Amino acid sequence: MSCLRDEILVAYADDQLSDEKRRAVEHVLAVDEDARMTVAMFKRTTYQVRRAYAGVDFGGVPVWFERLLRNVGARGAGHATSAASACGPRHRRWRLSTFALAACLLLGICIGSLMSADGLVPARSEPLVSIGDVPAASTLAQALDHVSDTGTEWTGPDAWRAAVSATFKDRFGNACREVELFTSVGEEVPAQLVVACRSGAETWTIVGAVTNQVSATSPSGSVIEAYYVPAEDEARSSLDSILSMLGAHQRTPATDRKTTAP
Amino acid sequence: MGQDVRKELVALLPRMRRFAYSLTGSMEEAEEVLQSACERALSRLDQFEPGTRLDSWMFQIIRTVRVDRVRYSVRRPTSNDPDIAETAAFDARTLEQLEARMDLDIIRGEVANLPEEQRAVLALVTIDGMSYQEAADTLGVPIGTIMSRLARARRKLAEAIDMPRPASRKRTTTAERSP
Fold it and tell me: pTM surpassing 0.95?
């Protein structure tokens, strides 16, 4: 039996002792065969245990985790204190001119079905679409199919328009589109930017949406202008968080977009 | 801060899952523990102190969730994950590979049989690679407790792994297989 306790020997085997203690243990090991065997036994168990767990795949992001993050994102949006904090960094940022009231951007994430059976709700400064599956025969599905397959703008009833602003794949390989939705109210200012994904020929799912509260005039009667500008040094954004949750890959080059139809 | 933490959480998932698995011994239960822990963490993000280690904070939560589940007897009776065993058998190309996988299965089973406290220390230090001090901080115990639990766990494991097995689990040596 060794004169050194197991606690010391296991710490020696794991290289967790100070240099001074380590040297002291080595003096003992030089003359204590039991201690040497114990150290060897502890090292062997480390190797065996690590090997046993190294063969198991612990990777992958489960569906429940994605949902959880999305739910937290939605709740967090409710606590957003300002447009800047809610909609900071992203590839592009919303920029609204003069009027603070109109410059407020809403992170329009809300879990549930679409707000109408048709998939689009003609409301001025409320979310046009909500997160969830898009009914197969709806106007929104039609719009998403069109912009995805052709890469060109879609024009629907009541001057609704949709245009693809980015194409990418999420971490599961599903084809996704960033789509800008325009209404007659905002004219060239997108009323909403949505992220829609689908796998294979299945239905589209809206996985994220950022809503712009566009209105024709401010309370004082001035015309509100709002437009995109390239992202620069802002800290974070609602869309970035959506893309991050999705595990979005690099944008698909424009030349490949037609061939990567979902 | 919240978004950064969420990004870090995604990166931490494999380590958290491995820790949960080493505590539970079952992939299915590990996933349940991990899910509860993530829900708990994300609902209390404001309690996480920026600048401190997120992995330690998450491991603490995972351990608490696990302890709660054991306390309320939610634990499933499985100690070895059947999926892994089936996968091992299916994937094995040779008898030697099969035997090696059975050995690994035995080791995981023996880890699952360790007392809860010893298993947690083993998971953090031996499997995850934390230092003794980091493990002590994570579990909120003195470093001496880490050393003694680890020594007992590793000695117990060594004895259990070297113990002769029943015929169905016993390793077949080359000599025994020869005609």
Answer: no
